[in-house]
Each structure stands twice: as C-alpha cells, then as structure tokens.
C-alpha cells in the first residue's frame, strides 16, 4: 500500500473531479501551487480569494483576532493602532493552537455562508447556483480515446518520470498517468480507471525493463489470473530508460579512463607536509585522499566524506597543489544549487557556478572548460545523472578533469540521480575521508558514522544519551519548538527541522508570534509571503528563487539564502540585508518576488 499511495491519491482526485462534473456540471482548471509542487486542479469559477478565505488555519486565526479586537474596543473604547492589531493577531496565532471548540454543522454552515458572501460581494447560495448551472460538460467513455493518443501520453509519462527517477515501477507510472489525464472528464469511474491503466501499460512498453522474467512457471494454484506468480509482489517490476543507462555507462567509462590531467607526487607531498594559511595540517586520511585524486589521471574522480570530515580543508590543499602545477585559475567549481556554489567559492576562493546555469551558458555562448583544469563539483550526490553526464563530457572534450565531492549516504538528487554512488561503488579504492572533526563528544563522532552506515544498534547509544524522545506528532512538534526557542533565548544558533512544508510554515508562524509578543520584533507594516504568512521589519526570511538581477556589490539573490528585512514599502516590496550585516549590502525585493518566492526563515 505504501508504494501505491501517491498513485491512488492522484486517481482519487481525478475520480472526484469527474463525480463533481457529473453531479453539478462544474468545469476544472489547473492552478500553479508554487515551487517544487505539482499543479492543483480547482473548479473554474471559484476565485482564489475564496479558497484563501477558507484555509482552515487562516480562518481560525482571523476569527480569534476579530474576537480579541472586539474585546479590546469594548474594554478601552477606542480604535486600535496597526501595532496593537499586529500584537493581537500574534496572540490569536498562539491561542488557536489548542483543540477547537466543537459546534453544530448548522452553525458552521451558516458562518461559512456569511463569510463566503462577504468575499464574493453577493449571496453565496445564489453564486453557487450560477457556478453549477453552466453548460453540460462533455463526458468521455473509454472507447472515445484513440489508441494512438494513449501511446503518445504513455511516452510523455515516461519522459516526465525519467526526469525525476533513475528507476521506476508501475505505481510511479500510474501516478503520472493520472496527472496527465486529469483534464479529461469521464462518464464513469470504470472508464477513468481503464484509460489510466492503458496509459500506464503504454508507458511500460516505452520503458526498459530491468527486472528479469520469472525463470520457471509456478503451479496453477500459485498463479494470479494474469499468469504472474503470487511469490513475486504485484507491480514490483523495475523499469528504467535507455537514455539513463547510456548516461551511466559513459560516466563509468570516464571514471575508468586515466588520460586526464594530473600533478606530480612531489608537488602533492610538499603541499600536504606544510600547514595552510590558517595553520592547519592535513590529517593522514586527507593527505592520502588528496594524493589519490591528484595523481590518478582519471577524467572523472571522486572524493567521499561525511559531514565534518574536512572535505573543504582537503579541497583547499588540492587547489593549491593543482594551481602550483597548472597555474592560477586552473581550478573552478560547480554545485547543484546557487547557494552551495557560493559557499564553495568562499571556501576555496575560486570561480564557481551552479550546474544548471553553467550548462545554459555553455549552450548559448559555447563557454567551456580549458585543458588542464580541475573542475570540482561539490554536493555531487545532489547532482542529476544526466547533468553530470553532460558536464563531464564537456570536460573530457576540453582536456579537463572532474572531481565529484560529496557523501553517497546523504540526500540524493531531486532529479534522476544515483550516479555519484554508482561511481564510488564501481571501484575499491575510492578516496574517502574517515576522521570526523565536527563533534565535541567522542561518542557522537563514532555514532554518527555508525548511523551513516545504517547500523541500527547505534540507536541504543542515542537513547542512552537522551537524544531521542517519543510521543504523538503534536507533542513532539511542541517539544522541538520549545527546545529551539530556549536555545535562541540563550543566544545559541539552533536549527529546527520539520517533515512537511505545512509543518514548517506553522512553526515559522508560531515563532514569529512569540517574537512579537516578547518584544524582539517591533510591530509595524507587514507584507504577505508566498505561504500566506506575514513578515515585517526584523523578520528572518528565505528567498526561494535565483534572480541575478537582484544584487548588491557582493552577489545576487539565491534560492535558499537567508536575509533580514530592514524596510517594508507601501507597494509590497521589501529591503533586505544578509543576517548580521549592519550597514550596506542591501537589496530591494520587488512585490511580485516577495509574494511568490519568499518564506519566513
């Protein structure tokens, strides 16, 4: 069931839309839901402001705020200032967190009707009759859909799934088939299910099957009606594509080719035996890894290391050694994200770019690498296979060497990935940093490595040191937030991580309310962000979209970058500054960027 959940959810949405159309005659349209999210389908004539009005969390906060404002006016007999309203809303944000009061359906529907009428500017019941009284929609039967169209959609399904996954199963294809046929309206549930299954069948035909066929036929009593064995889980066949496998083959070949540029072992020994500008001397594992990469001659090489193992220190030494042999500017950097590329540039003091931008520039201007260059791709486990294939091909043609740096045990690419792990496990001498430097306690150092390798007994160690707490979701969320807030009040830098975007938004809103009530944030003008939360001067925000036009003298606005708001303007734009910076470095974010690409941080 776990594997089928997404596909069943997508199919349910489509079946529900069909039922609403058959019952009420409504039509549907696709609406963008923001970054990294699939579009949402909504009834055509329902305005966005009405949808926003009935967002449960916002509605409860608005209702509680209205009550607090009414009480304040009754008690003080005067109009509220914007600062007071902001404080009351923060109070309402925290007050609405407990369980809500149970009320009758009749009472609720009366309130909903009143609230909708206020938003629409007309009686909600009359409006609803106009929405459901439109022209009769065309409903399809399974026989109405041409087979060539089914084949075409099936190939499109494989293209979309193949962009995000290296391998896939039937349920992945079913989910995408349901998404791509969502705009079609069917006469019955059976018609919908038949066409979705036929599109998935066509997608399977367009995929490359990796799971071998059953070698022996099971006895009749152990076969399903379709002839498959009950001993093989249903829909467990794994598929891929010729495109991905060919890209993996080319990467493996480049990693085995030793005609790339290198540097002499003598140069390496000189660099590794002397401390760097900050007085740091390489450890034995760092020196060995550096030497392996420097002299190997592999066109594509790897450097593995968990967080805190000193990858940056090792790369810095490698840069100095490489530039000693190949000259200044002979080391350049790439990373899957703009923020990671900026960190790499600051750490190694080299020119860097994110992989997508580099490839776009390469295609449009022909700019490429140079013979003898070392191209360091940091956070390589996050880089997609097709992206690595394209970049390493350009490096090979130019006579450059590519070094992939990262940890195969950490997060993987959001695109079709896994190439970094594949290259590491293709050889038995992959350079790896094993000594972790980032922990205060020795037990944490060893336990983190045990956990990284998936050795479950180490969980007992964390339990013994009181590092794991259990409870229901609400209790654990509350405990984590309380601990984070305690850290902040003590002047510590602390990070709070939640599982879903919705949980992150709720925690951000709660944190901001507390900061307003304790006086850390001063009430003032506010703007509404992409997730519906509010922000004002002093708030920490995160930008979620790369925009090179928005810049100061040190750089430009990157996806995932943290900022502090220093001014809110009447048109909805804001002035921001890097955290901790007191003067200068300001950038103005336009109102449309704020509304679409900014979250609380």
Notes on the structure:
With 601 residues, this protein is of the alpha/beta class. The protein has four domains: 26-132, no CATH class; 142-240, no CATH class; 248-425, Rossmann fold; 499-600, SH3 type barrels. Helices cover 48% and strands 12% of the residues. The protein contains 22 helices and 18 strands. It has helices at residues 5-24, 48-53, 56-76, 82-95, 105-120, 124-132, 147-164, 170-180, 189-206, 242-256, 265-273, 284-296, 311-326, 338-348, 355-365, 385-398, 419-425, 442-452, 458-464, 473-489, 501-517, 591-597, and strands at 28-31, 40-43, 208-209, 239-240, 300-304, 331-335, 352-354, 374-377, 401-406, 526-528, 534-536, 540-543, 547-552, 555-557, 561-568, 574-577, 587-589, 598-600. It has a five-stranded parallel beta sheet, sandwiched between helices. A five-stranded antiparallel beta sheet has the order 17-16-15-12-18. The chain has a two-stranded antiparallel ribbon with strand order 1-2. Strand 1 and strand 2 (40-43) form a beta hairpin. The longest helix is centred in the N-terminal third of the chain and has 21 residues, at 56-76. The two termini are 35 Å apart.
